[in-house]
# Entry
Amino acid sequence: MFTNRKITRRNLLATGAAAAVSGIPTKWAIAQTKPVKVGLMLPYSGAFAQLGENITYSIEMYLAEKGGKLGGREIQIVKLDDESKPELGLQNADRLIKRDNVDVLIGTVHSGVQMAIHKAVTESGTLCIVPNAGAVAVTRNLCTKNVFRTSFSNWQPAYGMGVALGKRGLKKAAWITWDYAAGAESGEGFKQGFEANGGQVVQTLTLKFPETNFQPLLAQVPGLGVDAVGAFFAGGGAINFVKDYAAAGLKVPLVGSGFLTEGVLGPQGAAAEGVETALHYGDGLENPKNTAFRAAFKAKANREADVYAVQGYDAAQLLGIGLDAVKGNLDNEASLYKAMREAKIDSPRGPISFSKSQEVVQNIYVRKATGGLNKVTGIAVANLADPGTGCKL
Ligand code: BEZ
# Structure
């Protein structure tokens, strides 16, 4: 059994030359008629299940728009529920790469699981597109030529929120989050943005992922003397946190990385009203791509699109650009990666491009939760690139 990725260029040349003489179809030619196997390693259960579903819906939507083919080849999807469990990450990634022989791995949502995927794809050389998880190492010190991200680095949205608050003249803030990579790295972004603009983060409060007993942390807020509380939570945890914050009757404004209110305003209800967040997407972004995307997503998923859906769609768009450039030949790695790195994508969030470390470059918007929408009120930072510290690409 072979896949086209595993045929080396030397083998290709040798078999190709012989077969050209004999008229027998080459392994390469046979491989090109096979579907490209794309593994979706995403959460379909647990706190981030809806995030994984929305990414999947929009990937399927894009493939349907392209008649099920990219770069002239059929795309075969293999799904795996990673449950947002980092401890299962390596074995799950290996299952897709070594047992299912996927050619491309799109995943995942949770930063801890991403680090396991990153190890597996760095070792195997499998093309990987990250459709959510923001773990900064992926496009910083551990960057590698076969990994691209269409979502964000954890640093980006929170940095934007910190900048916006600092520019407004706020002086002191606290940060509340889960104690894992996404929470800590978002906190670092918030601190850098805020402190570069005259503010100071005086306290960070954490609890274990995916716990939701927020009361002991919220009880400390009045004693901190802060002008704002910034937070990173997402999915089910974000629903509970925003509700508990409102129920605690705190007078300190709540702000955050946009995941705090993204895709969860319905269940958060009145508790979310007025919460400001920063993200690379929001309601009221008027562009033709977004209008068409939202209508198509609603028709497919029977729910409103959110940032997770956008990131999944753009992961599929990026794969399409790469496969088109090499006419479906994933072995033409240099041309494949070059085309992906140089891609300019018409995203529902607005135009995006990629940095040298293969991280998405994008606007970070300020949004205010108003009447069930995350209404964009301005741009916190335009065309924000992650610093890409330590990446040698
Ligand atoms: C993360 O773990 O990187 C993450 C999870 C949900 C939303 C945003 C980031």
In short: Residues 48, 109-111, 132-135, 154, 182, 234, 259 surround benzoic acid (CB under 6 Å). The chain is about 40% helix and 20% strand. Confidence is low (pLDDT under 50) at residues 1-17.
